Amino acid sequence: MSRLIVISNRVSRPGKSSNQGGLAVALSQALRESRGIWVGWSGEVTDHFTGHIGFAEADGVKTATIDLEEQDVDEYYNGYANKTLWPLFHFRIDLAEYERDFEGGYNRVNQRFADCASPLIEPEDIIWVQDYHLIPLGQMFRDRGLKNRMGFFLHIPWPPTRLLVSLPHHTKLVSSLFAYDVVGFHTEEWLESFRHYIEKEMGGTVKGDYVTLGDRTIQAIACPIGINAQAFAQAATSETAQKMHRQVRASLQDRALIVGVDRLDYSKGLEERFNGYARFLKDHPEYHRKVVLAQIAPPSRGEVESYQQIRATLDALAGRINGQYSDVDWTPIRYVNQGYPRDQLAGIYRAARIGLVTPLRDGMNLVAKEYVAAQDPDDPGVLILSRFAGAAIQLKDALLINPYSPEEMSDAISRALDMPLEKRKARWRAMMDSVETQDISWWREAFTSRLMAAQDKTQLSEAE
Ligand code: GDG
After folding, report:
1. Residues annotated as catalytic (active site), given as ranges
2. In testing the pocket of ligand 1, which one of 263, 335, 343 has its CB within 8 Å of the most ligand atoms?
3. What's the average model confidence in pLDDT over 322-338?
4. Domain range summary for the chain, segments of one domain joined by +
5. Rounded to the nearest whole angstrom, what is the distance from the C-alpha of residue 367 to the centroid of ligand 1?
């Protein structure tokens, strides 16, 4: 069995299993079984970059991490990754900042990853690079003579060509993807945009899954990420979850709970969600005092200005809506800027009659799937989901809405609250089937099996 080498911006600390995200769990299993290594930034900042690698092992998973300099973090992580690529890839060119220093820092840190990881890699290893922080890394490995099978997975959307061309040196960045053997996206829509760019902007060709640019042919595929559905469903009935469930229900006094859970990010459509909910309160006075929206939004990327702005906007908006509609014994929005451990979160999902997931643009969105997995099969809640989340392709039995329309959001909320049990069950069953079938192990297998098979074709063309 080939060793799997996973490389991502951050490495999830092994061992904290109950709090680990699905991705960490899925990758950990494959890493453990293949005796592989997970390589990434430690999250630590050092005065001078030395290239020192910190090795650790927990639960049978080996990790190799490097520390970065403050300038690296500013230019690569806060800069190019989160001020340039993140907004651009979420269709927000109005928020994207194009600074030469960011691009320079991004390339420098990718070179640092390449320098540190290359000596750890053996010829038979399979390399799997994760996400927009490390797009050019594969090319840098090839420049260092690595011939391994290499895959890349993009966890965020791929933007339309007309937006992508606003990025300085976009052709250089995109061509570097041709160093990989397999490049994966969550949905056909993102894959289509990628192919469009290659054909129209670069004169490449597409034949089925094969995309050719110059003398390189790679496979570009859609491979939707899932969650560990079984584990999540179990978490929702754990003792911790039940306790949380009871606590939340007791605080509601028979009111219906609507829940939102998102990193505090402008792509998640929180402002539009609050406005849609306000519209619901305006349109449906009969529901006053009968519903509560709990929005859990742990702050993220607080060093980036656009995140400080969205936070200030939401503070003001939640205050305004609560000011307008609250009573001394009822507050329509509970806006919470803290995170909860996974089991507690699962209990909150299960207590909620509606899961309100309304990103303006999202590669996939795992919260939608977690909400489904956490429901009580005998009395499931209703998922309201943005059409612009990758997850909408699979979760067709959610109430799909345009998150920019407060009216659609208002109508969907009242429809969900009025939905009879049998209809809720039927919709939930269909969604749960999809969440269970295309779960996180399915995703990992689907991608890595493509990557393993990719070698055959390379060998063939070398032999020809
Ligand atoms: C990127 C893409 C794609 C959130 N608050 C708490 C908490 N979370 C967990 C959720 C969920 C995860 O964070 C968020 O995942 P999403 O998929 O919703 O969004 P991103 O963070 O933007 O992820 C996205 C994903 O990558 C995977 O490819 O789906 O489109 O943007 O798992 O549960 N977890 C806990 N407490 C919290 O308060 N424990």
Report:
1. 155, 362
2. 263
3. 97
4. 4-226+442-454, 229-437
5. 6
Q: Which residues contact 50 (CB under 8 A, 6 or more apart)?
A: 67
Concatenated DSSP letters of 406-464: HHHHHHHHHHHHH--HHHHHHHHHHHHHHHHHT-HHHHHHHHHHHHHHHHHHHHHHHH-
The residues with which 4 forms a beta bridge, in sequence order, are 126
Query: Using CA positions, which residue lies closest to atom 7 of ligand 1?
Result: 339
CATH number (1.10.3720.10, 3.40.50.2000, 3.40.50.300, 3.40.50.620) of 229-437 reads 3.40.50.2000
> What is the 156 CA–ligand 1 centroid distance (Å)?
12
Closest atom of ligand 1 relative to the 22 alpha carbon? 32
The pLDDT mean for the chain works out to 94
pLDDT at position 12 over 80: no
Q: Whose CA is nearest to atom 33 of ligand 1?
A: 367
Q: Which two tokens stand for residue 315?
A: 């503070």
pLDDT at 28: 86
Ligand 1, residues at Cβ distance < 6 Å? 21, 155-156, 225, 261, 263, 296, 298, 339-342, 345, 362-367, 370
b/e per residue, 237-251, with b = 16+ CB within 10 A? ebebbbebbeebeee
Quick one: pLDDT at residue 33?
86
The pTM of the full predicted model, rounded to 2 decimals, is 0.96
* Cα(350)–Cα(346) distance, integer angstroms: 6
Amino acid type, 48? H
24 pLDDT tier (thresholds 50, 70, 90):
confident
Q: Is CATH 3.40.50.2000 the classification given to domain 4-226+442-454?
A: yes
d(Cα 430, Cα 425) in Å, to the nearest integer? Answer: 9
Where residue 59 falls (left for φ over 0; alpha for ψ -120 to 50; beta otherwise) is left
pLDDT of residue 460: 46
